[in-house]
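Re: [help] complex structure
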Amino acid sequence: MTPELFIQYLFAGITYGIIYAIVAIGFNIIYNTTGIINFAQGEFVMLGGMIAITMHSVMPIPLAIVAAVVITMVVGALIEMVFIRWLESPSVLRMIIITIGISILAREVALHIWGESVRALPYFIGNEVTSVSILGAKISPQVLWVIGVCSLMVAGLSLFFKFTSLGREMRACAANRRAATLCGINTKNMVTLSFVLSAGIGAVAGCVMSPITYSDYSMGPNLAIKGFTVAILGGLGNSVAAVTAGLLLGIIEAFSISVLPLAFQDAIATSILLLILFVRPHGLFGSSEAASLKEF
Amino acid sequence: MDLFKRYFPVFSLLAVVVGIQVVTHFTETTYYLTQLTMSAYYSVVVIGLCVLMGYGGQISLGHAGFFAIGGYLAGALTTHNLITLKGHRLVSLLDNVGLLVDSKGLYGGDLLTVEPWAACIIAVLTAGLIAFAIGGPILKLKGHYLAMATLGFGIIIYRIALASAYFGEADGISEVPGFKLLPGIEVSGSFVSRVLNYYIAWGMVIVAVILLLNLIHSRVGRALRSIHGAEEAANAMGVNTARYKLYIFVLSAVFAALAGVFVTHYNGGIGPSEAGVMKSVRYVAIVAVGGMANIWGALIMGIVLNFLSLRGVFGSYDDAVFGVILIIIMLFAPQGILNINPGQKVKSLLSFFVSKSGEETTE
Amino acid sequence: MKRISNSVVTVVISFCLVAGFSLASVAKAENIKVGAILAVTGGASFLGGPEARTLEMMVEEINANGGINGNKIDLIIKDSGANPEKAISFTKQLIEEEKVFAIIGPSTSGETMKIKNIVEEAKMILLSCAAAEVIVNPVAKYVFKTPQKDSHAVQKIYGTMKDMGITKIAVLAGNTGFGKAGKGQLEKIAPEFGIEVLMAEVYDKKATDLSAVVAKLMANKDIQAVVNWSIVPAQGILAKNMRQAGWDVPLFQSHGFGNIKYVEAGGAAAEGIIFPAGRLLIANSLPEGHPQKQLLVRYLIDYETKYPEDKVSTFGGHAYDALTILVAAIEKAGTDKEKVRDAIENLTGVAGTAGVFNFSPEDHNGLDINSFEMLTVKDGKFALYHK
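Output below.
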């Protein structure tokens, strides 16, 4: 394999991987405060992209993206308030089914609003054929946008959780919900906030990736499955590990093409998921004791 | 008396089934039997899953995978022409044992294919063995992990169906012949044998229901209920929970595969959408709507919802309708639609809003 | 005991509901009923959507003009979501309950193959909008199809390649029925033109990025051109990924590229793509006397006036042709089903969006290789390809 080819695969892998990681972090934020896996996480990404494209017809790209992210955050909050907030200690099974229902509903609403055709935001810099040369490989500048924006988001999130009081309160919820309540934290609001936050980062990802991957109403489930694989791979709830796991999965997928037919690409992620679930359900980087303490 | 109590609904079901056939016969609307037959087969998957979810407490988002294993294997074995391999020793051996049939193709040409009975047994056995093999590690998981693992299994089956030339890739398998159960009794979609097929399908449903009812009221059923209630406690009492969970998982997989075989012969083909994730979600939705631990609820919902969906009543909103039903039932009646107590629901809703407004005024 | 009697009551009630549906009598109409089974939603909605919209538009217009020989058309569209089991159920429903005159669709080859035997048994005319050649080969008496043959598209592409001096190619295909059939034909016909398929890959119909596979193909320096066979949005993605990677070998697409939206989505990367297609996409630049010109321009203007959100595509054109053929046959033979079937089989010189149809008992597709033109993308628009 020539060095150029290697770099080409690597960047393809990093692009996939960072998007998976963002979806996985979305899963983790909600999982940490509620113990729920939000099966509709992929739909946030879809909504972000689709709304931004619609907004772009009346306003410039940066504004359209901001508007799309805000609207998706509101949708996230509404979903939590309408479907989740008032349930008293729902079972895991019930929550799985509800979030699957929400995902189906969001998809169908999108189908009837936007129709079946694909759309895309224009490239932020240059156009479809622009590329920059990195170590002999040619990469679209949009790929650098995706990597840059997503890295910033990950860094921003970890600062938020570490250094702001709101972030600390959310972490307190994650660690022990009852204790957090006793300390005067309004855990219900923290749950809403977690939905808003994860809808927001999903929407940002949906916007920056739209020029590369296009957006359409049915893009959610595939992303959600990949994102969940990454979340499990890193250990549920661990966002830093999710980034590592995301990049790992993305790069494995990209390089797998060099030896295996492309048709098997999606089967690889699923097989890795099953393997990890069977062998190390607490993830590659998680500890089994910590995992067994979590409520399922 | 006990037995009478248990089987009384079965007899009523039988009466209703016959009743519908008679009514449609005299009103010349026998065409409704087509969708009722298909719904009946899908309901077999649903009631199997109902026992797994309701009594075993294990969610499966991969049951369309087992359905597809059954349907695809039966379809592929009974359609792939082995005539060019006729000289091969293995093929001629199978032929001599009577596992192969010679026939004429619809558009000319000789066909040498696997006998449907043999194909059916192979298909169901394969599904059962796969369920047995993956059931061990999968059923150790709980909650979200279990959901995702079964979903992953379903996706892999879907990918295999979609990627392999043997299973027809995106086109699936067509021109699957009928399945002669006994001389004169054939599972096929031809217009003339519709009434017969209606009874075959419902016969299968009734046998399945009786089997499951017996199971629930047996030692196994009690053990299963204890698993659902408190698995650790059941374990401590010496119930081998892992074994019972596996048992019920394999059983529900076999039900799904059997339904898959029959639907494939009835429809004359199968496509990858039968293996899709959306299908699995649908089965779970129906079980949830019918009430988790309620075979009758699951059966009724399986018939009604599939019947309406197959008739295209929901038009372009088919998936949306399922999504909405899923959410509403899970929000307001997690015990299923047949267990709704309307008065109490209104009361609890009211009290929710009252307390809510109370909160706001105090703040 | 109460619980049991409860469940009995529910069993009875729900079956009465079902039976109630059975008793609802079907309104009798003098009109000609035409059924359509289309994938309006689901994985093939980019086919079924325009097809359904086209049929609705045409039927409205035909009825406004007084129908066919005075008979109005009742159109019943059933959304199969590309599920074969639904297509089967709907076919039986349309045949026996609605007692339709003919069925248009389904949109996909998989569904069409499932219902082929059913319509044969019921002696029901089926005008499929799906591409695969197995639909009409072997010929089934009542089954016709309107999209062009894959093999003709392949021959057209290979012919162009020969002129360009290309002999070594790579093939990519989407994992849909369309992609599967096309890949098969590409590999089968290649030797006839002295062309060698060096690599062949299949990608998922929902693929969102193909840069890794582009890198894989690019590493093989012998490849002189890429042929991509699919109907999905990934057609535009492939073009982008190839050009971004700085790979400038010619890119050929199939006739599934016939939707200007794919060009828009591909942007600058779509420039120079070469593909075979019917003349719908270049209707306005056809010479005045061309047999298809008038019809194509009318369809284009009608469709885009009625659905300003949408752009005309060859997919909707397949449904347009199906109804056009049916109407032509009914005008000729009246409302007797058998006579209409015979009439379709003997139709010649009927201009449609895909080409000029000349049916015969041996050919239930009726299109020849001349129904294709080689097109290219120039300044974001379709244009005739000149060597």
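Residues 241-267 of chain B form the longest helix (27 residues).
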